[in-house]
Amino acid sequence: LLQSGSKLTTAAKTAWTQFLRPGDTVVDATCGNGHDTLFLAQAVGPSGHVIAFDIQEAAISATRQRLEASLPPGRLPRLELHAACHSRLQELAGSGVARLVVFNLGYLPGADKSLITSTATTSAALEAALEVVEPGGLISILCYVGHPGGMEEYNAVRQICAELKPAYWATSETRLLNRPTAPVLVLLWRCSEPFFGRRS
Ligand code: SAM
């Protein structure tokens, strides 16, 4: 992961690639301009299912256009794009359906910085993602700590991770110790069977 240097987005994609298989269902909870969504669509292929969320209608249009322009119709997975807050993730995506749920928090570079993820909705969305991801699946969260509110949001994510039952969840974070304001990659793996036979 560290060979990605300061680009923890690349490190995140390395983790996604290890988990995804053709035909999987994947959720992009913050699709923005669709760069990550395109990567996910290519990983799950035409037999896969991509569900994406963004609070901005313009982001949903940009994501649809990027995917349709980049992949020929026969290579497109089933696409389900929601112009909605990701706190509605479980209601709109269903329970235990996704191999991977991806969050890239913060605001869209070059766009209105007030349209930003927040501690309250991110916490609600992460609680929903815990239900949406299937056993054996992964939740990936890229947290930005350098902008106002970012550290509080990251701490809320950490708190939820720290309270998960260790028999059913393994959680980790990757951060650059010599770049304290760089993004932090948080990964949550939902175990397919209880760890070490523990049931608590
Ligand atoms: N993954 C994107 C890409 O590849 O272009 C970049 C995502 S950008 C860092 C964060 C996105 O989160 C913005 O597009 C913003 O509109 C969206 N967002 C902010 N609050 C949200 C919410 N409550 N629910 C869903 N999306 C939200």
From TrEMBL:
What domain of life does the UniProt record list for this protein's source?
Eukaryota
- Output this protein's name: rRNA methylase
Which species expresses this protein natively? Edaphochlamys debaryana
